[in-house]
Structure formats: C-alpha cells, structure tokens
Amino acid sequence: MPRESSKCREWEKERRNRLNEAFTTLCKLLPCYDPSINTSKIDILRNAATYIEELQTKIKSLMSENNDDSAQKVKREEFRKLQERIKRLLSKNEQLSSLLRDAKITIPPGCAIVRKFKNPLYWSNRILPEQAKILQKRELESEGK
User: Fold this and answer.
1) Is 120 within 8 Å of 86 (Cβ atoms)?
2) Structural domain boundaries in the chain
3) DSSP string of 69-138?
4) Following CA atoms 81, 86, 89, 91 in sequence, which dihedral angle do they give, to the nearest 10 degrees?
5) What is the helix (H) or strand (E) element at residue 124, kind and residue range?
6) From residue 15, how far is each of 8, 12, 41, 72 by CA, in Å?
7) Coiled-coil stretches, from where to where (predicted)?
C-alpha cells in the first residue's frame, strides 16, 4: 500500500506544478505583469477577468457603426498605455543598471542605454513607414558619432 500513496503524492505534485505553470503563463500575458512582484493566484484571475472585459469592450467599440472615431480613440488609449509601460520599464532598467554599477558588475553594451522618448510631433502620423525607417537610421547614425 505505501506505493499507491507515494504515486498519489507524485500525481498531486505534478498536478500542482502544472497548475502553477498555467498561472505563471497567464500572469505573463497580462499587461500589468511585473516579474518583481509575486502576485497571488486570485489576483491573477481577477486581473485576467478585468483584462478580458476591457478587450471585449474594445472589440465591441471597433465593431460599432462609428468605426473610425472609436478606432482612433482605442488606438490613442493603447498608445498612451504603451508609452506609460515603456516609461516604467525604462525606469526599472535604469534602477537595475545603477544597482549593477554599484555592485561593480559589467553591463553588456546596449543594456544600460536609456533613451528618452519624445512626444510624437503633430505630423508624425503622416509620414510613410519607409520614410520613418530612413529617419530612424539617420538618427541612430548621428547618435553613434
């Protein structure tokens, strides 16, 4: 009989591991994911439900009759959220870089570079992607000099 109980324990352990991996995967998919914060399972589920509701609202607004206006609103809101997330990630990057420097650990090239993003110009949506790539190359070349 001891064999069966050990098998049950192994199966239960595997089930818990699969469940924990699923929660970790779900947490990583959420926009509020922060690897430095240990999020509880109930918070992960609540955040996922909230995020799904937000996405459903966005889909409904995009499918509505005022497609152009609502699509522009959604794009602007999404752009604003992405800018905020970039700012948070840049500040974390800066913090981590300073901690590494304080610990006298070498930082790989390009990892410690913190670029400040400028607000988009009023005409920024009116240039073609090819023109944007050319301008980006010029800017990177001028930064390198």
Assistant:
1) no
2) 1-63, 67-145
3) HHHHHHHHHHHHHHHHHHHHHHHHHHHHHHHHHHTT-PPPTTTS--PPPPPPPTTGGGS-HHHHHHHHHH
4) -110
5) none
6) 10, 5, 15, 45
7) 45-106
CATH class of 1-63: few secondary structures
Place of tokens 């840049």: 90
| pLDDT per residue as tens, the chain (145 positions) | 455 678 889 999 999 999 999 989 998 888 888 888 888 989 999 999 998 888 888 777 766 756 667 677 777 888 888 888 878 777 777 777 777 778 887 776 666 555 555 555 555 556 677 777 887 888 888 776 5
